[in-house]
Amino acid sequence: MAPSAVSMVFTVENAKSPGALEKGQKPQDGHSFDEALELAGFGKVQIVLSILAGLGMMASINEAMGMSIILPASQCDLDLDAGEKGIVGGAVFLGTMFSSYFWGYLADTRGRQLILKYALFATSFFGAISCLATGFVSLLVLRFLTGVCVAAPASTVYAYLGEFTTPSRRSQMLSFASVWGGVGIVYVSLVGWWILSYDWVFVISDSFEFKPWRLLFIVNTLPAFLNGIAFCFCPESPKFLVSRGRNEEALEVLRKVYRLNKGADTTDGYEVTSLRLDPEDEIAREQNGDSSVGLFRSMVQQTLPIVKLPYLVYFIICCVHNIGAFAIYGGLGLWFPEIMNQVFSQQSPVHEDRKVCSILQQNETLPVTVVTEFELCDDEVKIETFLYTLLLGVIGCVYALITSAVLGKIDQKVMMVFNCIVAGVSGIALQFIANSYAVAILFCLEIVFAGYCVLLVNANVVAIFPTNVRAMAVALTNMIGRLSCFVASAVIGLLILRNCPVTFYMLSGLLFLCAGLTFLLPKK
């Protein structure tokens, strides 16, 4: 972060906090965790963990966005109609919503790294066996279970990476990790384009055929499996260890971070010999010391700090942000390829371009002429589907890289407002633009900028909430966001077809509300 640049949720870089130590000075009562982390240095450890955290985000994106390509290819084999496709596409978000609270509790009480590795393996398992679905119900159940498991990496990686990074660099490293979300979209579009170009069929039985779209489930979940293996070799978060009273283990992790970052053979140069408890860690230890409470009471105790002032106000604001961001990024994003296929299918060299809403609403009212006894089912995935999804991912990657470079020079509150306004204006502009290519760009801008708000909100939560409830706070705000995502993915297509302008105005209005609420968040 730039010198003296005030961040909304992170400490001011290069500015000295009260009681800050001069170089080489050792406090009598030990170093605070942030001081110890600063002395461990910034380098290879944070970069590698940022990549691994990014792959965790990519696993979540793959399971969600991959369905926008798999569903059109599987609709005939599984006999899915438009409504069922919307429900199945949102099943991952529904599973994530139901399990986020529990995963947050486990991550705050059992450990970030432990939960991440097992959840990633479980995600890859259920993601892979989704290829065995034979109908709407079986696919819905398997995608729901995949969502239950992917909820852990989707939220816990923010807390894990944030606790290995000093406050002055935390937002930039989380932003860098978010690049992999765009990589995930590029990945599912490219492998989908490649695998679905084949038309082979393996007949397993009279009622089951293994086709390319089934293989796509396995390929899409492969990054989650590899990421799970990588996390097996990663240490537990030292901040979590301190909050659980395991100071010696935390010091050992910090010494390893120092040795790897400095390229030293020993840790003799690391000045930290003891850690001083922060107030939030003392509270966490008091709560952890009471082992007589049951599971339910323990979960309630873990949640209470979040719903008490002033955290309750910040929690509500972050939830509203995630409702708007997820509704557009997840809900509208799931329908994006199909909407763009309809837009470009209406192109004609002899007719003028028409606005997107007139095209979508006309398609809703077109009469269906049945010329044969049986209606033919079209499961061909047009090349435009891959191209538009690929474009969405590329724009996401580029914007994440640019933001990672400038985030240290721009107030994070300004970045959140900027993202909300650009996404909202893009949604409104869609009502007045007729050129098909301009419509595609505006859609991409709306989805990417709204999606990036998810990262910024999670970065806020990591910094605002104390260690002992941090993972649960991230999980709960994401749970609320994914509920809106499921609702949006299930009904947004129908809403657009019935009253397209009002739908886009409502989504844009929600983003403008989020922009205003941003100013109520605290500076940290």
Arrangement of strands in the largest sheet: 1-2
Q: What best-fitting shape do the alpha-carbon axes yield?
A: globular
Average predicted confidence as pLDDT? 80
- Helix/strand-derived category reads mainly alpha
- Kindly state the percentage of residues in helix: over 70%
What is the makeup of the main sheet? 2 strands, antiparallel
How many angstroms does the end-to-end distance come to?
14 Å
Assembly type: single chain
Order of helices and strands: HHHHHHHHEEHHHHHHHHHHH
Weakly predicted, low-confidence segments: 1-21, 364-374
Number of helices: 19
Please give a structural write-up.
The chain is an all-alpha fold and 524 residues long. The chain is built from 19 helices and 2 strands. A two-stranded antiparallel ribbon has the order 1-2. Strand 1 and strand 2 form a beta hairpin. Helix 1 runs parallel beside helix 11, helix 2 runs antiparallel to helix 6 and helix 2 packs across helix 7. The longest helix has 51 residues. The two termini are 14 Å apart.
For the structure shown, list the relevant keywords:
19 helices, 1% strand, mainly alpha, globular, two-stranded antiparallel ribbon, 524 residues, single chain
Helix and strand topology:
Layout: H1 33-40, H2 44-65, H3 67-74, H4 82-109, H5 112-129, H6 136-162, H7 167-177, H8 179-195, E1 202-205, E2 208-210, H9 212-231, H10 238-243, H11 247-262, H12 279-289, H13 295-303, H14 311-345, H15 356-365, H16 383-406, H17 412-429, H18 436-464, H19 467-517
Antiparallel strand pairs: 1-2
Helix pairs in contact: 1-11, 2-6, 2-7, 2-8, 2-9, 4-5, 4-6, 4-14, 4-19, 5-6, 5-9, 6-18, 6-19, 7-16, 7-18, 8-9, 8-16, 14-16, 14-18, 14-19, 15-19, 16-18, 17-18, 17-19, 18-19
